[in-house]
Amino acid sequence: METEIIRNDDGTTVVKVSGRLDTMTSTQLEEKLDGVVGDATDLTFDFADLEYISSAGLRIILSTHKLLAKKGGGVKVINCLPDVKEVFSITGFSDILPIS
Hints:
Elements: E1 2-7, E2 13-21, H1 26-37, E3 42-53, H2 55-70, E4 74-78, H3 82-91, H4 93-96
């Protein structure tokens, strides 16, 4: 799994994740997000190159959303590949987060 954090001039933060987000790699993402979530109110996950997501990855996204929601913000997910988008749909995440 590869992760890139992009802080845009307009104050938005984009987290680009590629590869597989599973039990083995989720701690890496969690560590990177620790340095980002404190300063952010809204965060966008760009999953254009994410091939697979497990329940461990879903847990991180949901916990990040909850943290940001407490600050009046939230999480959105963009550029999902069909298989990843299906996981969000089946698990009900598409009812909680904006996913495209």
